[in-house]
Amino acid sequence: MKNTADSTLDFFRDVYDVVRLIPEGRVTSYGAIAKYLGSARSSRMVGWAMNASHRLPDVPAHRVLNRNGLLTGKHHFGDPNEMQRLLESEGIIVKEDQVQNFLSLFWDPNDALKLP
DNA sequence: TTGCTGACGGAGG
DNA sequence: ACCTCCGCCAGCA
Questions:
Q1: For A3, how many CA atoms within 13 A lie in the half-sphere containing its CB?
Q2: Cα–Cα distance for residue pair A84/A31, rounded to 1 Å
Q3: Given A40, A42, A56, A88, which residue has the most CB atoms within 10 angstroms?
């Protein structure tokens, strides 16, 4: 017996698994994670998974940004400044909600975790 | 139950 | 380059 909730939970778990692998001081995007998980058009669900990830202390949700390197999820942290503060504590420069040097800091799971 | 929203992103005009 | 629409699908009124 199976239901849709099971696959949803699997998807969420996979998202967390990838996010946990983001190295400190690096960032990635919702779309990159969705693509890696085989659901390139489900980037919104990655964001939703992040929303549910707050109770998991080992999921660095602050390292997940939108494709422009903007801190679009900052309002979902306790304080709006928390996301930026966490990033800056890892050596990342954030200016006006945007990660500087985003392309160099971008960590693509499709590349780092690519299948052989 | 239907409809709208949303931590997104790509495609089309 | 800019704007709009569409897909994805879990919550909520």
A1: 1
A2: 20
A3: A42
In the three-class reduction of DSSP (H, G, I as helix; E, B as strand; rest coil), residue A37 is classed as coil
Model-level pTM? Answer: 0.90
Domain hosting residue A97, numbered range: 4-106
Whether A95 maps to a domain, the answer reads yes
pLDDT digits (tens, 9 = 90+) for A96-106: 999 999 999 99
Domain-embedded: residue A115 = no
Closest nucleotide over all strands to A64 (CA to C1') = B7
Residue A40 CB in 7 A reach of strand B: yes
Task: Answer for A106: CB within 7 Å of strand B.
Answer: no
